Amino acid sequence: MNASSPTAPSSASATQSVRAGYALFILTLINLVNYLDRYIIAVALPEIQKDFGINDAQSGLLGTVFIVVFMLASPLGGFLGDRVPRRLLVAGGVLLWSLATGASGLASTFTALLLARAVIGIGEAGYGAVAPSIISDLYPREQRTRMLSYFYIAIPVGSAMGYGLGGWLTQTYSWHAAFFAGGVPGLVLGAMAFFMPEPKRGAMDGPDAAVKLPFMEGLRGLGRNTAFWATTAGYTLMTFSIGGLAFWMPTYLVRERQLWLEYPGRVGLVFGAITAIAGLTGTVAGGWLGDKMDRKRAGGGLWLSGIGLMLAAPCMYLAVNLQDTTLTFAAIGVAQFLIFLNSGPINAAIVNCVPPAFRAFAMGLNVLCIHMLGDAISPTLIGQIADMASLHTAIAINAVPVLLGGMMLLVGAKLFREAVPQART
Known about the structure:
CATH superfamily of the largest domain: MFS general substrate transporter like domains
Keywords: Membrane, Transmembrane, Transmembrane helix, Transport
Radius of gyration: 21 Å
InterPro entries: MFS (IPR011701), MFS_dom (IPR020846), MFS_spinster-like (IPR044770), MFS_trans_sf (IPR036259)
Main location: membrane
CATH architecture of the largest domain: Up-down Bundle
GO molecular function: transmembrane transporter activity
Membrane topology: Multi-pass membrane protein
Oligomer: single chain
Number of strands: 0
Structural class: mainly alpha
Helix content: over 70%
C-alpha cells in the first residue's frame, strides 16, 4: 500500500500534463491556421486588384472590414467564454471562419469578398478571446509566459505560411485556389477542438481565486486596473503599426522595390521565410526571457516587451530606406524579431493582472481596443497616404507608433507591480 500510494499523484500529474499538452497543441495549430488564412489575402492582393479593378484605399477595406467585425464580436465571445464551455466556442468559431475562407475563393465581386472577410472575423472572435484564458487555467503562473509564447509562435509561422503558400498558389494557379486551400485545415481542427479538455476556471490560481464574478463588478474592477489599460494602450500602438505593415509590405516589395525582378514569383516566399524565422526565434526567446524577468520582478516581462518595441522602431524605418536588398531584408528580420519578443509577455501580463472569472472578457475587450484603434484603421489609412504620397512614405511613418507603444509598455510594467497583488487577492 505504501509503495503504491506515491504513484497516484504522479499518475494524476502525468495525465493532467498530457491533457494540457493536447489542448495547447490544438489551440496552437488553430492559431497557426488563423494567421495563415488572415495573410493569404495580403500576398494575393495585387492579383485581386487586377481582377476587380480596385485602388489601394479600396484594397485596404479588405483588411479593415475583417478587423472591424472581429473586434466588435470579440467582447461578446469573451463574455460567453466566462460563462459557457470554452471548447464549444473555439470549435464553432474555427469551423465558421474556415468555411468563410473557402467561400472567399468563390467571390466573383469585390462586395462578395468583403462579405466573406466579415464572416471570417465573426468566426475568429469565437476563439480569440477564450484561448489565452484556457491556457492560463492549464498552466501555473510561473509557466504561463512560456506556454503562451508557444501558442503565439503560430503568429509568425502561420503568417509566413500564408505569405508563402498564398504566394505560390496565387502565382501557380490563382488567388481563388489560395483561399480554397486555406480553408481545409480549419475544418479538421474545428472537429478536433470539440474533444479538448475544459479546465476549471482559476484552476492554477489557488483555492481563493474568484471563479464567479458578477459582470458589472468585474467591469468596475477592470476599469480601475491601470496596468491592464497601459498594457492595452501599448499593444494598440504596436498593432496599428504591424497590422498595416503586414498588409502592405508584400505589395511594397513588388511595386516600389521591384523585387519581383530579383525573386520572380517568390517575393511572398522570401518575406514569409524571414517572418517565420524572426518570429519563431523572437517568440521563443520572449517566452523564455519573459518568465525569467517575471521571476526577478513583477512586470519584468512587460519591461522586456517595451524595450523590444523601442529597438524595433529604428529597424522598421531603415527597412524602407536602405537601398541594398540584403540589408533591407536584414532590417525587416531584426525588426520582426524584436516585435515578436513581446507575444508571450504582453498576453501573460493581461491574464495575470485580471481575476480568473473575468479573463475571457478582459481578453475580448483588449482585442476590441487594439484592433479598433489599431489595425482596423491602419490598412486603409496607409492606403490613403500611399495614394496621396507614396507607399514608401506611408510605411516609413509606421515606425512612430511602435516607438510610442514601447514607451507605454514600460509605463505598464511599473503599474503591473500594483495590479498583480490586487488580482491575486
